Structure formats: structure tokens, C-alpha cells
Amino acid sequence: MALKGFVVGMLKNVLLEMMDVFSPRVLAQGDEYFAQGFVLNVRLSDGLLKGRVRSADNTLEDIYIDLKSWPKMPARCSCQKQYNCAHAVAALQFLHHKSFESTPTFKPVGSEAKPMPPIVPKTALKADDLSWYSTLKKQKNDFFSYQIGMIVDGQEIDIVPLVQDFLSHEHAWLSLADDHLISLPLSNHQVVTLPLKRIKPLLQILLLQDKPQATKPLLLNRYQLLFIPEIEQAAKAIALKWQGESTWRKIFGQLKPLKKVRLPVYLQTLLRTYQQEGLDWLGFLRANGLGGILADDMGLGKTLQTLSHLVVEKKAGRLQLPSLIITPVSLLKSWFNEAQAHTPDLKLGIYYGPKRKLEALKECDVILSSYGTVGRDIKMLIPHKWYYVILDEAQMIKNHRAKITLAVHQLTAELRLCLSGTPIENHLGELWSLFHFLMPGLLGSIKQFRKNVIAPMAKNESSEFSAWLIKKIEPFVLRRTKAHVATELPPKTEIIQHISLEGRQRDLYEVIRAGMQQKVTQSIKQQGMHQSRFILLSALLRLRQVCCHPHLIPALKTHLPAYPSAKLKMLMTLLQNLIKEKRRVLVFSQFTSMLKLIEQELHAHQYSFVTLTGQTKKRQDVIETFQQNDVSIFLLSLKAGGVGLNLTQADTVIHFDPWWNPAAVMQATDRVHRLGQQNPIFVYKLIATGTIEEKMLHMQTQKQDLSEKILNARHQLPTLTSSDIDAFFAPIPE
User: Which of 602, 679, 596, 586 is CA-nearest to residue 636?
Assistant: First the structure.
């Protein structure tokens, strides 16, 4: 091949710079392509090199190199790498050997004469014949530099950069068999051969890195140290020489085992077997300094298990700092009540409302607060240190860019815990967000997680990497469904689901409450309690309607804008979860107009359902449609569906709104909880916090006779006092 003088000069300069531009891995692979005759043709015209090279998988790749502007303008290739790849090296080596009969000597401008870089045969070493070493060194901000490698001729060679280089070029490595032999180029023209499976865990860790740099040590955060044992076991580095941070290596190299936790004698509740197992699991996480997600189905006692764990920690003397539990506003009271009933030894305080003061709660073991409060007060909360930060309904931080997510990340705690029956509502990115709060960095960056986990699963593509990663987080997620623990559940479990009225719905409630309170008070003053009974019942009815949905108020409905209903929103969330669990649900309401509003939402969500009210014709057809498993949701008015029906195909009852007479509510529940029922029954009562509904619930338990007095037209209500009236019309607490 005859070359003009200036072209020869360009080619010589290109060949000299190859060692600086191409990595050892690319050079070795390019040499191998050339040696095996994979270069099919090369043409050089006016400084532009065009070539065609066959890959190891027999695909043909086209090469383009402008020798006049290389390496500023990289060599281009049709392969996946696209630029400065092994195919380009093979083409240049081919041109070199066709252009010069022997190894020439040349003198670039301003340089001494240097020989052309010859192709030197590689010496193949076997990994089993070499000694291995690993190094772990503490860096800043909970990061560690990690190396694992081989000792060749007394020299330590870190294989992490070599494996990173392999990863950057072998895009299809996931499709290769575990026994597929690969070659990693070492120094001094040596290569080491080993099966892919021996570096696969290291490859998978490198996939978690956002911008890995092959020339620098691999940086792992403290939680990613959990992966080191698998890396070293897969490499079969039995005689591994450990260096550096042995303390951290021991902590994460061998986790403390799960042990049975002994319950304190002052725990007021006997835990079921699965709840004891949950307590043991929480103890395992604490002993190893790790976070986790308690993801039991709704109604299985996540709150009780968490409170029991905190009691154990207090008994052991580890609760030296207060723990912060963040929950939706509607659940603050539920947490407080649960603690009072089951773990009275815990000192609880609530940090919420316009008069909140953190200093007043400094003696508390546990502080309850809402997501909104924490978001607003985050600057004040940042300086405080907590033993635990616990997120209830942790799906609230599913968006990793949301303000509340960024806020809770700034809280300082020894341990973190998430509670959620639905940790994944839409996609796996939500799970990443929860783990980024619990153990930052464990799952790598969100960019790499999307690329290597979310994207393949969205395309229904099987991904060995995503399966490996999900398996890695299994120890840190505990989920039991109702079906899994059915044998341990009681025949009937009742759950009070508190809901907070917010925004315009809350404002409307307060306006009607204040107006009705004035009207009722004035009537009682002028006519007495008995004559004011119907005015009182009418006022209470209006408040109950606003709690369900503002559109239930006939006089205002046509003038109202599209008012939201917090209770309807909660119902749809609840139904979504129950349908996923394959539950069969009865929904009762006092108001047939409310059932129509629910029907509209069910249609919008494309849920199949049937409805039974006093206006329903062919009642038996409707009942049989539900009993024959054609639909999963049955809407019933309390009056029409509360008696005379046998609906044992259902296993869940939702009372959308309370009624004064608890016996009527119990009769409705008994449509499901009766002879012939084979499954545990769950009964949900939706209660608007701080409203007339909560007063009704209180009366049913504390003043059982009062509801009867309100309903009994002949009763003179001698015990209905002004304090009872004030309680009915008390404003919603801040």
C-alpha cells in the first residue's frame, strides 16, 4: 500500500497517540480482532480512513477516522460504543502492518526518533493461579474507596477499572452465559482469563454508579458495603488479603442474625405470631443499623408493631433521644390513641397546630407530627437529633423531587423506618425514593435505576440486573397480606379510618357550623330543648352532609363550584388497595345521594359495581350478580341493605358515614359477618376528624344512651346539656 509522505506522517502520529487515547481493554480487544483476521478491508483517501471490521458476534461494523483531525475528532463506528472503539484499533493496526514492511522509526516534529508500537503477544494468566487482595478505606461523608484485584509479580493490580472498561464496551454482557470466558488486560502485556460469573456482582455494582471513572477507585457509600461479601465470594478470592477498614468490613460483611425479641411486661397487648415476627424483624434492622419498609396490608397492625418496638428500645435503654413519627394529619389522633391503649409507658407528644412548641415536648419519648408541619418547620427541625425518624403512609415521599421528600431527607436520625401498605403505587421509582430516604445510595442514582431497572420492566423485558437488585433489598422489606395471615386473624377486625377535612371543604364546614350553632342556641333559649329538637337534628344533618360531600346540601348544590370531598378521595384510595388484594367490598351510606356520587367516581375509575337502595327494582338480581363474583363492589343504603340480606361472599365492609344508632351499623356489618363466612372480616369506619362525626363515634362508646335520646321523638332529653350542644358544634381543632 503506497502512502504519500504527509499521510505517512499523520498515520505515525496517530499510532503514537493510540496508547493515550484507547484504554488497555480496548487496545487488547482491537489487537485480538486484528490477529484473528476480523478486519475485512481498509481504505485511505486524503486522510480519511474507511474500514469494515467483524465483531466477535459476527456483526459487521463500519469505521470512519479522519486522520487529519484525530483524536480531537474521535474515530466513529457503527457499533454500540460509536466512538474510539476496538474496531477502530483493529483498523489502525491493519493499516499499520500493510503500510510498513518492518517496524519503522520516525521522527515527529520536535521529537526524537521513536519506534512504531509493535503488537506484542499477550501472556494469558489464570485467575486461580494468582493471589487476590482487597482494600477498603474510609473517605469523607460516609463514603469508602474499594479495590479488589490480583497480585502479579509482586504488584497489586486493581481489576475494578478493568471491569469498568469491560462494562463500557460489552453492552450485551447480560446476555452472556455465566461460564463465558473473558479476558482482562493487565500491565506488561498480560491478560487474565476468568468466567463472567466471577466478576458479575462487581459489574452489577458498577451499574449503580452514575458516572464511574475507570482511573479512580470505586467509591461506595456505607450501605453499599453490604454488597462486598458477594463480590469477593463470586471472585472465589478465598485467600483474599484484607486491607484497610476491617471494622466496617466486619459490620457489613456479616449481619447480626434475626433474634426473637422479648416483649416488655408493660405492653398492654398480646401480639399475634406475625406481629411478633415483625417485631423481631425491626430488632434485626436496629441491631445492624439499617432502615426498612414495614409494608403489611392495611389493618394488620403496622402501628402496633412500631410502638411495641419503641417500647422494647426504651426498656433496653437505647431510647436516649426522642423519636419522630411523621404521619398524615388524619392519623395523628389514631397514633396517639393506639399508644395510650397499648403502650402507655411511652411518653407521647403531638407537634402540630398554631400553638406548637417543640421545647414543650423535650421530655417525650415519641413526638408525632404531620407531613405539612414538618415541611413548614424543617429549618427549625434540622438542628435536632432523633433516635428514629418514622414515616407512616410513606408513599407520601414517593416523588423524590417533592418538597416534603427533600425536607425529610434533611432530618438527622440514628435510624429510619417507613410504614406503607402501598410502597409502590405506580412504578418502581417510588420504591427507589423510599430507599433513598432509608439508606441513601443503596440502590444507586435514580438515573441508573431508571435505565437498568425501570425501563426494562416497563418494556416487559427480563432483566437479570433488576432481579438481582430486587433480591438484594428483600431483607429490608417486610410485607404480609391478609391472605398470608388469615389463620391468625380474628373473625372481625374493626378499623377507624380518620380523615381530615381540608381547604374549601373545611371552610364550608366551619361556616355552616358557626351559623347552625347560633341558630340552635337561640332556639333553645327561646323554646327550650324539646321544642328545638328538630332544629337541632336539621343542623346536625347539614354538618354530616358537609363531612361526606358538600354537594349533598340541596340548597347550595347548584351554587357550589366543584368542591372536593376528602372522604370520597379516601374511599377511592381504600378501594384501589382492596381491589388489588382481591377483596370483595360492601360500602354503606345513610345518603342515597352520596351513593350516586360514589357511583360517578367508580365509573371514572372503571370499577364494576352494583347498587342497592330503596328504589332498586329486582333486588334479587342485583344480589346474585354480586354473590356470583361478577363484581367486587356493592353499594348499599343503610336502610335498604342493613337487614335481611346474606352477603357472605364479601369480606370487607366500609361504613362511609356514621349513624347515631350503633345497632343499625352492627346489623349492616352482620350482612357479611354471619354463619357461613369463611374469611376474616375487616370493617372500616370513615370518620372526619374533629367534626360532628367524631362526636357521634365518641357518643356511641361513652354515652350509649344519648344517641337513643336524640332519635326517640317521645323522649324529653333531660340529660342533653348545654355542654353536649357545645360539643356538637365545636370548631375543628387546628
Answer: 586
Domains of the chain: 5-121 (no CATH), 124-253 (no CATH), 273-478 (3.40.50.10810), 503-562+720-728 (no CATH), 565-704 (3.40.50.300)
Q: Are 285 and 418 in contact (CB under 8 A)?
A: no
Q: Is the previous residue joined to 71 through a cis bond, with omega within 30 degrees of 0? A: yes
Chunked mean pLDDT (size 10), the chain, 734 residues: 55 72 80 85 84 83 86 83 85 78 40 44 73 83 83 83 76 73 73 84 82 67 83 66 56 67 75 92 92 89 94 93 92 88 92 89 94 94 95 92 94 95 78 92 86 75 72 88 80 87 91 92 86 88 94 70 86 91 91 94 94 87 85 89 72 90 78 71 92 85 52 46 83 83
What is the rounded CA–CA span in Å between residue 27 and residue 18?
Answer: 8
Cβ partners under 8 Å of residue 607, min gap 6: 575, 579, 632, 633
Q: Which of 670, 667, 720, 713 is nearest to 695 (CA)?
A: 720
Core vs surface per residue 603-616: b (16+ CB within 10 A) or e:
eeeebebbbbbeeb
- Kindly report the pTM of this predicted structure: 0.71
- Closest Cα partner for 481 from 295, 278, 307? 295
Interacting residues of 376 by C-beta distance below 8 A, sequence separation 6+:
none
3-state secondary structure of 400: coil
What cell was used for 512?
355552616
